[in-house]
Amino acid sequence: MISKPKSLWSRLVRDRFLYLLIAPGVIYFIIFKIIPLGGLIISFEDYSPYRGFLHSQWIGLSNYIRFFSNKDFLLLLRNTLVISFLNLIFYFPIPIILSLLLNELRNQRFKRILQSIVYLPHFLSWVIVVGICYILFSQSNGIINQIIMAFGHNKIDFLQNPHIFWGMLVGQNIWKESGYGTIIFLAAISGIDPQQYEAAIIDGASRIKQMWYVTLPGIRGTIITLLILRIGSIMNVGFEQVFLMMNGAVSEVADVFETYVYRVGVQNGQFSYTTAVGFFKSIVGLVLILFSNYIARRFGEEGVY
Amino acid sequence: MKESKNDRIFGIFNIILLVIAALIIILPFYYVVIISFTDPTEYLAKQGFVFFLNKPSLASYKYLLSTSTFKRATSVNIFITIIGTMLSLIVTAAFAYGLSRKRLVGRRVLQFIVLITLIFDPGIIPNYLVVRNLKLIDNIWSLIIPTLTSGWYIILMKNFFDSMPTELEEAALIDGCTDAGVFFKIILPLSAAALSAFGLFFAVGYWNTFFKAILYINSPEKWPLQVLLQNMLIDSVTSEAGQEGGEMPPAETIKMAAVIISTLPILFVYPFLQKNFTKGILIGSVKG
User: Fold this and answer.
1) I want to staple B226 with a disulfide (CB 3.0 to 4.6 A). Which of B68, B92, B210, B258 is the partner?
2) Cβ–Cβ gap B256/A207 under 8 Å
């Protein structure tokens, strides 16, 4: 074994190569992760870039009061919660169902091909996904509307209709992420003891019954953990998708915290105010994550942190 | 064991459902591919009702690849993907390796900081102001440096280094090898497969860079592909392409050619990505 020098200094000298290795990472974390935390101070200031955040005027909670008394606040909160819950209700079960179905395939080659297909959209950018959606659903010359017309119906304005907007978001999310979402459930399914199936077969259980009484309970823990984690990230709607799908006609139902911060903060330069908006969102997110992890542990599942 | 009749029906029903699911994913792609290769005159004549290729044409691709905007955006993408992936791998692997050595002073503090960044994100503006104060706004490096590494990748990679037997290092050190020698001659060669897997995930991330670009880049000539695509596909700006003379194919076929070209690199690495899903699974399922 290597002898252990006692003093801190000699340990630092001995391990100098390790410190050299971590130096870029440490510098990165200080600049891009720690300093922004300090930057939250400007949410209590009337920040002016010329004075810097050390010398800008301190205005206490004014930015927060302004935000909470603004009608935008309730709108953003509603849109965030609605989009998240719609995803929870309509998107969340799909990967579970899909993995149950994939698991029932007897032909392994066919199963692998299907898996390759359904995993793929996850790796496409939101720009591509929303772009394809625009191509297909466009009112002027999208193929979907062409088909609707061919059947003698009127065109539907999919992309500028506030009533359809949330549905489009959830639909895109299902299309993009359902396949990739099956991976974790398929992994859980493969961990189920085969003896349980043998016992079920001896009891004369049909394949549907095996799915219902063996497979599904077998992945119950995974489902609960993921469900709780999703609830923990309810404040995160995904900036890129909403930003790309947003247009003047749907902004009432589309605007969420991030798009608001981007527009009012980055584009209009109201840094202090939007830092307060972002801070509020992050705090709620943090509480939800810690809470959901606590609940996950209470359920006897491993928390993530 | 012979299957019962009900089970056979279930099996067929199951296959039908899955084929429908696969078609829902494939058909949009199929249509985009077909249209991108459709002859401009045929596309216009049939109003987009083209589901099979009669006479394939490369007109849209030729046009797109002749435009300076598309070429420029592609070169921005290639630059940030290659340089970004290399830098991300170096910084992440070095940091994660350091964290995985138990004798490192301050290891727990660093781990705690990494963990904090995972559960608390101060938001868009504080990050934006840091990049601004570094004078990186409208600088192509702003597409790489602000996301050089992340807590997720560091933790995953640290777990990987933790899983390597410590005897390797101990034996080498006893034989008189230095720390640097252990890292470069033993650890890195043994980690090549894992590192290339991480590299692929970094590369896809850089290739798909969009958010950083709309935050930090103002000049159109520094746009990466995703921002150009957003302009073409969603804001429908296709004519700006800047080619003098010559017949311009319909906007729709150009758009679809743009989708295909910018997706090709992803399709190309996809088989390798797929092999490494299990390593990426934590990232995808928990972060996403």
Assistant:
1) B210
2) no
Chain A residues within 8 A of B262 when measuring between CB atoms? 128
- In our burial notation (b when 16+ CB lie closer than 10 A, e otherwise), range B215-233 reads bbbeeeebbbbbbbbbbbb
Evaluate if residue B286 carries a pLDDT over 60.
no
DSSP 8-state code for residue A266 = I
Flag whether residue A127 sits within 8 Å of chain B, measured between CB atoms: yes
Question: Any CB–CB contact under 8 A between A159 and chain B?
Answer: no
Read off the pLDDT of each residue in B16-34 and give the average, rounded to a whole number: 95
Q: Do A22 and B126 touch (CB under 8 A)?
A: no
Look at residue B241 in the predicted model and tell me its pLDDT: 46
Three-class DSSP category at B165: coil
Q: Does A17 touch chain B (CB under 8 A)?
A: yes
Residue B141 has pLDDT above 90, yes or no: yes
User: 3-class DSSP state for residue A58?
Assistant: strand
> Beta strands A57-58 and A45-46: pairing type?
antiparallel
> ipTM score of the complex?
0.90
Residue of A nearest to B176 (CA): A2
B163 lies within 8 A of chain A by CB? no
Residue B137 has which token pair? 């706004």
Taking CA–CA distances from A159, the nearest residue in chain B reads B234
pLDDT band at A5 (very low <50, low <70, confident <90, very high): low
Sorted by where each starts, the structural domains of chain A and their CATH numbers stand as 70-298 (1.10.3720.10)
**pLDDT tens across A59-85, in order?**
989 999 999 999 999 999 999 999 999
Question: pLDDT at residue B97 above 90?
Answer: yes
The answer to whether residues B139 and B146 touch, using CB atoms and an 8 Å cutoff, is no
CB contact under 8 A, A240 and B263: no
Query: In which region does residue B188 sit, left (phi positive, over 0), alpha (psi from -120 to 50) or beta (all else)?
Result: alpha
Which phi and psi angles does B236 have, rounded to 5°?
A: 55, 45
